[in-house]
Amino acid sequence: TEEGYMAGVHPQGDRSFLLVENHCPICAAAVACTGLCGKELEVFQAVLGKGVIVERTEHIVAGARRCAYRVSPGGGKAAI
Fold it and tell me: Sheet containing 52-58: which strands, arranged edge to edge?
């Protein structure tokens, strides 16, 4: 993306998809302030709505080569 995240979306075949960020342009800040990563997860959940579950499956700060989030159906009623 223009912001430098090298992001992609990959369908998983079980009605879920994987949102992948292959690069983190704010990695140094995220290492110093891990709350940034938590807020990113909260933003994804808020934007995608109550009708989905968002969970982080890979995390650069924890040593993974990328950050990845599984987005799957579930949770409460979707926001309109």
Answer: 7-11, 17-21, 67-73, 52-58
What own/partner pairs with CB < 8 Å and gap ≥ 24 does 38-46 have?
A: 41/69, 44/19, 44/69, 44/71
pLDDT digit string (tens) for 25-69? Answer: 888 888 898 888 889 999 999 999 999 999 999 999 999 999 999
Whether pTM > 0.85 for this model: the answer is no
- Percent of the chain at pLDDT > 90 equals 59
| Token pair for 33 | 């302030």
Q: Which two tokens stand for residue 5?
A: 């995240």
CA–CA gap between residue 48 and residue 9 (Å, rounded): 14
Half-sphere exposure of 34 (CA within 13 A, CB side): 4
